Each structure stands twice: as structure tokens, then as C-alpha cells.
Amino acid sequence: MEVLVVLAPHDYRDEEYLIPKKILEAAGSKVTVAGPVEGVYTGMLGSKVKPDLTFSQVRPLDYDAIMLVGGAGSRKWLWDNKLLHNIVFQAWEAGRLVAAICLSPSVLARAGILSGVKATVFRLPAATDALREAGALLRDDHIVLDGNILTCDGPESAGEFAEKMLEILS
After folding, report:
1. Cα first-last separation, the chain
2. pLDDT in tens, 50-80
3. Rounded to the nearest 5°, which phi and psi values hold at 94?
4. Residue 168 vs residues 31, 95, 163: alpha-carbon distances, Å
5. What are the structural domains, with CATH classification, of the chain?
6. What is the pTM of this model?
């Protein structure tokens, strides 16, 4: 399985990247990391990663799944990124798994794929507002699957989130 993981350059949530990456790779998945710019990215807790691709280089249909990592940086770097919205929309439209954790379900809302879809998000007012405004059916569950969209509310559920991705993709 090929999984594209999307990160913000600054302040991504480390566990939401590191835990799923470890679980996915242990199951034999190839993980490719993408972000909006080149360079070394730094998580909220200090982990570092150099993405393999920038958004302009991503071909969404090359992947079985796209996973968007949250954290404080996602609001600044990901929520309103039109290239990312296009990547997400193409993957969703083609029936690929589109997964987002913490604050990043807001990207799915702004990409226009959450209308009438059950979803969850980290309980920050701006994030819950983004989902409601997009017509999402907001749930209090830690993990919500609706069609080919998987959402998770935060880092405490990162392992379970990755396991659910594997279950869906197998």
C-alpha cells in the first residue's frame, strides 16, 4: 500500500505523524511525506522530517490513501492551501481513503468533501465551525468512518487511527 502523509512545515503534531507512520510501515505500507514547501519540518514536540515531495509534485492517484496530520501548524499551513484541497478532492473523488486527524479534518471541510458526511475533529472552535459550515455531521467519537473519509479527534487516538486505516485498506 502507498500512503501519502501530509504535514505542516512547523508545529505538526509529532505523535500523529510518528505513531501512524510506524504502524503503517510495520504492516508493509510505503509512506511518502508531502508538504507545502521544501526544507526540514519541525513538530510541536521537536521531531524533524524532510518531506519527499511538495504539494505541486503530488499525483494523488498514485496513492491508496492520503493522511493529513494535525497540530497547531495545520491551521496556518494546510487549512486554506488550494493545492492541498485539490489533492484531497481528487483522491476522494477517485475513491481513495482520505484520512485526517486532530485539526486537519478542517482541510477536508474546506476542500468541499464533508457535506452530509459524519466526521470528528479536535475540539477547537474554529475547527468545529469549519466542519459545521461545510455541512459535516459532527460526531463526538474519537474516530469516525463515513464512506472513504476517516477522521480522528487527536493524538491520543493516533494508534487506533492508523490501525483503522490498515483495516480499511486491507
Report:
1. 9
2. 999 999 999 999 999 999 999 999 999 999 9
3. -85, 0
4. 16, 12, 9
5. 2-169 (3.40.50.880)
6. 0.97
